[in-house]
Amino acid sequence: MEPAESTELKPQHSLWGEWLLDKYSAARLCVKKRPQALFKEVGRQTLVTVMALLIALALVMSIYANLWDTAWLTWPLVALFSGVAALGLLGVVRALRHALGGIRLEVDMQQKTLWGLAVPRDFCKAYAAKVRGYALQEVQAVVLHTYHPAGAERRSNRAMCELIVQLKDGTCLQGPDVFAPESYAQERLLPLAQAIAHMASLPLELKEEPLPPSPRKPFAFFRSR
After folding, report:
1. Global pTM?
2. 191-207 burial by CB neighbour count: b if 16+ within 10 A, else e?
3. pLDDT at residue 130 above 50?
4. Residue 223 pLDDT more than 50?
5. φ and ψ at 151, to 5 degrees?
6. For residues 104 and 118, is the Cβ–Cβ distance under 8 A?
7. pLDDT band at residue 83, thresholds of 50, 70 and 90?
8. Counting beta carbons within 10 angstroms of the beta carbon of residue 38, is it exposed (0 to 12), middle (13 to 18) or buried (19 or more)?
């Protein structure tokens, strides 16, 4: 078993993932995603967009070259990869906006405000989401959610733990998450969750449930017989 690292809250302390405790005092707390992780997402989205565009262009060139007889089959593929490229471009814009503006969860007791990025409820809002400010009194719950592996997944001995701040209107603000050995995944975020709950004058809610099952592999039915 890996030794547990100290979970004492210290400024610039890593939360063992893509998040960093940027500022911490009795009146103010701020955690943010590491810039490296945000710019890595820009690179991933850019790669998807470029690859989709290249495939779409290659298909168009093949049609004009010598495959007019099968153009009726190829044009739908061109449209498909063009759509993927368009969605990828939207993803690049969103990721770049997040990388430049940052993603953070911040509590300021002096100003009685809370800043965070709302977890999008639908496809369109996912591309328009940005860090916004809310009144601290709007907070309804601070939840530390732990997903434990179940069944065959339990062999990995790792669990997912995420911190969520829920507002009275149902909006959930994104907080840090860690994927760590099951025995102390929750411990990584517990002091942070307790501090935020204390600032919001609310009890911390601890929730645990199994990880959702992995999708069945193709032809698994035939292999199991």
Report:
1. 0.73
2. bbbebbbbbbeeebeee
3. yes
4. no
5. 60, -135
6. no
7. very high
8. buried
Q: For the CA atoms of 196, 197, 200, 202, what is the dihedral angle to 10 degrees?
A: 180
Sheet holding 158-167, edge to edge: 172-181, 158-167, 139-148, 204-210
Residues constituting the chain: 225
CA distances from 111 to 28, 71, 87, 115, 199 (A): 9, 62, 38, 11, 12
The one-letter amino acid code at 159 reads A
Q: Does the pLDDT value for residue 131 go beyond 90?
A: no
Q: In this structure, how many other beta carbons lie within 10 angstroms of the beta carbon of residue 69?
A: 8
Which of these, 209, 215, 207, 222, lies nearest to 152 by C-alpha position?
215
**Is the pLDDT at 218 greater than 50, yes or no?**
no
The SS3 of residue 109 is coil
Q: What is the DSSP string of 123-161?
A: HHHHHH--EEEEEGGGEEEEEEEEEE--GGGGGG-EEEE
**Ramachandran angles phi, psi of 120, nearest 5°:** -65, 140
Contacts of 190 (CB under 8 A, 6+ apart): 7, 144
Residue closest to 104 by CA, chosen among 118, 90, 88: 118
